[in-house]
Amino acid sequence: MNKQERTDVELIQAVLAGEFETFAELVERYEKLVFSFLLTRLNDLQEVEDIVQETFIKAFRHLASFDCERRFAAWLLTISRNLLIDSRRKAGRSVASTNLVTEVMLSDSAREFSSQPSEVVVRRERFRSIVAMIQELPEELRTPFLLRVINELPYQEIAEILDIPLQTVKNRIFKARGILRGKRENYENLP
Amino acid sequence: MKTCHENDKLLLFCERGLSEVEQAEFELHLKSCPECSKEVAEINADDALLKEGIAEAFARHRVNNRIMQQIRSEKIIPAQTGKPAQHSWRYFWLSALALLAIIAAANLYTPAAVKYHGQSQGVMVQALNDSAILQGEHMTADQSVKLEALKPIALDGCFLFTVTNGHTSVFKMSGKATVRLSNGQPDFSDSEAVFEFISGAQLTIIVNQQPMQLERKKQSAAAVSTSEIDKPLIRTATTAAELNVIVEGKEEAVPILKPAENASAACNTPQEVTSSESWIDPALAPMKNPFADEPIELNGN
Q1: How many CB contacts within 8 angstroms connect chain A with chain B?
Q2: Cβ contacts of B287 on chain A, cutoff 8 Å
């Protein structure tokens, strides 16, 4: 079997058997998921990076205790969420208040080099407003919505990762879209 | 303000939540409705921008190399606290096998009389030597029968009775008697026999229409006569009796059981003491592994 076709469990077993470098494949598979999970919860990109790194290091250390009946992605998000809570507790804050993410995220990108300055401004402003709207969504709606839009996961996979019923996933994503629709209308009606 | 009457299908269309027919119908509608068409375009554009923006940020802030670098430089290895749960069946069968072996070994070393204790109700009669006679016929040592209700059985010799009625009591009968079950308890008539309590809960039997309470004797190694019991059973009965005497000594120090108390109270107390001793202190429960089985809960920060 091709290495790239190996399942998560097979990769985990290989790592536990001593092929530590195989863990890089798991990082490759799920780094974006953890990154995007954290991104709309933290505005400090440095902190996002640190927690992503810490999540995978912790997963690596405790890989032997992973229950292979579960989804590896779900386990990673649980670790990530716990680290996020710890981080917030230590820092003594609930949510970062700066908009560093939106400042940094779209700056200096290859696409923007080739765009007109006015287009760049409009695009950044639009992106900033979208992220702001998503950050206002309740957590239980935000996570399935992001998994759907950013990670393009099918409903069933989101249900498995979040350990909630399929219909609940659909309802939450639909509800998130409804809220965002209302916010978009308000945003467009602003003077 | 949305004015199109098809507007309520818009979000379902974006999430492909409509039936195939409805999905196709709405696509046709979009061609003729600028309002819905504009909104669908905005939603798609926002989704694309969000995805693109995060992808750009991710591309510039990846830490995969840092992760592997840290693993290599710090020589981190996975803690060998267990194996992935996929192997759990192997461990389950190994554990089950080990448990069966323990049960089998325990069974081998369990005294013969105690084997009857598995029954929730009933009276077993066991011949203690070859001279024991039941209904005029000699029995072999260790041979046992279940005492059926309303069927008097003539006994002559040395017998062990195991009475199980919620609790188990064992006593020995030496001599002649006719026995039958009366309200679940042995009822001896025409008795010329001697009765000795061996082990278990306090018991009242009927002997020649008179109640006789069988109870543990005070601490005395000679309390149980084993002269007429065959060797394996001699050891069994003596050991059990000695153990009970020791238990009783403890009970006297802490006056839970008194001879004056009725039989039912005396039957219950030893079990209560045993069960309370086996309670697990919740404070000593092992800490939960924070990673093994924690359900993911992403509802709220």
Answers
A1: 173
A2: none
User: In the predicted model, what is the mean pLDDT of residues B220-233?
Assistant: 42
- Domain annotation covers residue B293: no
Would A1 be classed as within a structural domain?
Answer: no
- If asked whether residues B134 and B268 sit together in one domain, one would say yes
Residue closest to A158 by CA, chosen among A131, A136, A133, A176: A176
Chain A residues whose beta carbon lies within 8 Å of the beta carbon of residue B51 = 149-150, 152
The single residue listed with the structure tokens 């400090």 is A44
Q: Which residues form the domain of A110? A: 106-133
Token pair 């019991």 is found at B229
Please name which of A46, A110, A55, A64 lies closest in space to residue A83, comparing C-alpha atoms: A55
CA distance A136 to A125: 17
Domain shared by A35 and A86, yes or no? yes
Q: Do B46 and A101 touch (CB under 8 A)?
A: no
Q: Are strands B121-127 and B153-165 parallel, antiparallel or unpaired?
A: antiparallel
pLDDT digits (tens, 9 = 90+) for B250-259: 433 333 333 3
A170: which chain B residues are within 8 Å (Cβ-Cβ)? 15, 17
Domain count, chain B: 2
The answer to whether residue A30 sits within a structural domain is yes
Task: Count Cβ atoms below 10 Å from residue B85 Cβ, excluding itself.
Answer: 17
- The domain in which residue B222 lies consists of 113-272
Interface test with B, best of A76, A181, A186, A189 (most B CBs within 10 A): A181
CATH number at residue A29: 1.10.1740.10
What pLDDT is stored for residue A87 in this prediction? 84
Report strand pairing: B203-207 vs B185-189: parallel
ipTM for the complex? Answer: 0.83
Chain B residue at shortest CA distance from A57? B67
Chain B CB contacts of A149 under 8 Å are: 47, 50-51
